[in-house]
């Protein structure tokens, strides 16, 4: 059984799964930036006292699963999700839904994904892909970060669906059960809600580790890393910051640029030209993040390793903090409807 | 970022995929294009792997010196942290830590060894006498 399905490549897996599944069910205007914006995907958080792969635990986007869930809710789409104890039950259920003609979103771990380059396989369990058919003991897989589609044997798919460790997927699957008419008004409302929630997430979460203040928090840490950890380990930590920001398999995706693209579309949907200005600002913030990554690379490549280089990196991050704070404050003052 | 500034450096993704990147076209409008890779990312990834390989090497030496059991070595080799190894084996973390001791490891039942072998995707023989050359 193979369902007709259009593979769409995207920068980030969850945006991609959302886009493809919605398009498949007739919401043909859906695209990656729109899913990311309606789902309020942009974020920043640095969780202290926690480590990921022996480095700092931070994220440049909202928690896994939220983008899909929020976008579905905003557009009145009913979602069915399920987790499993046994691999057999998970496999049977997946086949059943595919037989009903529905492509299915799956949460998986990347460590055992055979089509991923080996260098990218760490134990990261919040990757998303779509299974849209099966034949001869193999599943047909549309992984949004890949250029084309892939095939996995039933064993290979089971292995990644039941990967273990942090955020273990436990065979988690999800798919739209029913989608009604998505009117222009509903779309406008969804875009406004998405923007407002993102403003809240970036500016209003109490504490110093989440939203724009999280960037300031990391800047403070970066300043101390050389003394505290030594040049080599501090370099590894900076490398992890860059990988979280940019790299597939760990979450990356150049999120500031995706959000800039979303605001450009939002300006059109809401007929509000002020949003174009905000899109420019967030693009500038994205460029600043990339410049900071270049600076960090100078450190982990061992080209610049003095304390002043760490200070300069921290200062660059403080500038990003100021820029994003100003941008979201401006955004919060725009009247949207 | 402008579309023409999207980096096209050679990376581990070569021959596997190019990544989608959002950038501005000549008219200042957002568009997406494909990137082969970026040296800044490549170096960060290479660094992470150097670190992983160093830890594997250290673990290997610790087994050769009789300080640690092969469980410790394979945990590092499979890039596992504690939640990952406990997830795959079903053992508690203090149990796993006990099994890092060569003296405790020697007395493990076949059943327990089989759990580790499955988690590490190796045979029980390989687990008992790992190739540390």
From TrEMBL, chain A:
Q: Which organism is it from?
A: Reichenbachiella agarivorans
Task: Please report the stretch or stretches of sequence annotated as the Butirosin biosynthesis protein H N-terminal domain.
Answer: 12-144
Q: Which InterPro entries match?
A: BtrH_N, DUF4872
- Short name of one Pfam family for this protein? BtrH_N
Top-level taxon: Bacteria
Q: What protein name applies here?
A: BtrH N-terminal domain-containing protein
Task: Give every DUF4872 domain span.
Answer: 155-331
TrEMBL record, chain B:
Q: Output the PROSITE patterns linked to this UniProt entry.
A: HTH_CROC1
Source organism superkingdom:
Bacteria
Q: What region holds the HTH cro/C1-type domain?
A: 106-127
- According to UniProt, the name of this protein is HTH cro/C1-type domain-containing protein
What is the species of this protein? Answer: Reichenbachiella agarivorans
């Amino acid at each position: 059984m193979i369902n007709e399905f259009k593979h769409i490549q995207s920068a980030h897996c969850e945006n991609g799964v959302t886009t493809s599944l919605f398009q498949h069910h007739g919401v043909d205007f859906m695209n990656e930036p729109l899913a990311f914006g309606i789902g309020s995907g942009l974020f920043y958080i640095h969780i202290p006292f926690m480590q990921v792969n022996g480095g700092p635990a931070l994220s440049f986007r909202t928690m896994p699963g939220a983008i899909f869930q929020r976008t579905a809710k905003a557009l009145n789409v009913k979602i069915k999700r399920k987790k499993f104890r046994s691999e057999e039950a998970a496999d049977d259920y997946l086949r059943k839904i595919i037989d009903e003609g529905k492509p299915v979103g799956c949460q998986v771990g990347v460590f055992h994904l055979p089509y991923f380059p080996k260098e990218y396989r760490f134990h990261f369990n919040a990757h998303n892909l779509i299974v849209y058919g099966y034949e001869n003991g193999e599943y047909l897989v549309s992984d949004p970060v890949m250029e084309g589609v892939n095939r996995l044997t039933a064993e290979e798919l089971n292995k990644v669906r039941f990967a273990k460790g942090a955020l273990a997927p436990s065979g988690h699957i999800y798919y739209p059960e029913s989608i009604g008419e998505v009117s222009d008004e509903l779309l406008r409302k969804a875009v406004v809600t998405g923007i407002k929630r993102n403003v809240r997430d970036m500016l209003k979460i109490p504490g110093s580790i989440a939203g724009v203040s999280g960037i300031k928090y990391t800047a403070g840490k970066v300043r101390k890393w050389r003394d505290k950890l030594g040049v080599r380990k501090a370099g590894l930590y900076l490398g992890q910051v860059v990988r979280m920001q940019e790299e597939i398999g760990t979450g990356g995706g150049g999120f500031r640029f995706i959000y800039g693209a979303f605001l450009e579309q939002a300006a059109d949907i809401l007929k509000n030209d002020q949003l174009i200005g905000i899109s420019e600002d967030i693009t500038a913030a994205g460029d600043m993040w990339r410049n900071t990554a270049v600076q960090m690379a100078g450190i982990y490549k061992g080209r610049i390793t003095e304390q002043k280089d760490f200070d300069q990196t921290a200062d660059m991050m403080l500038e990003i903090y100021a820029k994003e704070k100003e941008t979201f404050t401006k955004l919060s003052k725009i009247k949207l409807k | 970022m402008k579309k023409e500034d999207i980096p096209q450096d050679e990376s581990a993704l070569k021959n596997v995929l190019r990544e989608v990147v959002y950038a501005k076209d000549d008219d200042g409008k957002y568009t997406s294009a494909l990137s082969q890779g970026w040296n800044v990312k490549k170096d960060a990834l290479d660094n992470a792997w150097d670190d992983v390989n160093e830890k594997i090497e250290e673990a290997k030496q610790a087994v050769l010196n009789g300080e640690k059991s092969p469980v410790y070595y394979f945990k590092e080799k499979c890039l596992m942290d504690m939640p990952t190894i406990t997830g795959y084996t079903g053992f508690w973390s203090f149990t796993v830590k006990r099994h890092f001791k060569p003296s405790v490891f020697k007395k493990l039942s076949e059943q327990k060894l089989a759990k580790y072998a499955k988690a590490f995707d190796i045979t029980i023989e390989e687990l008992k006498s790992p190739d540390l050359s």
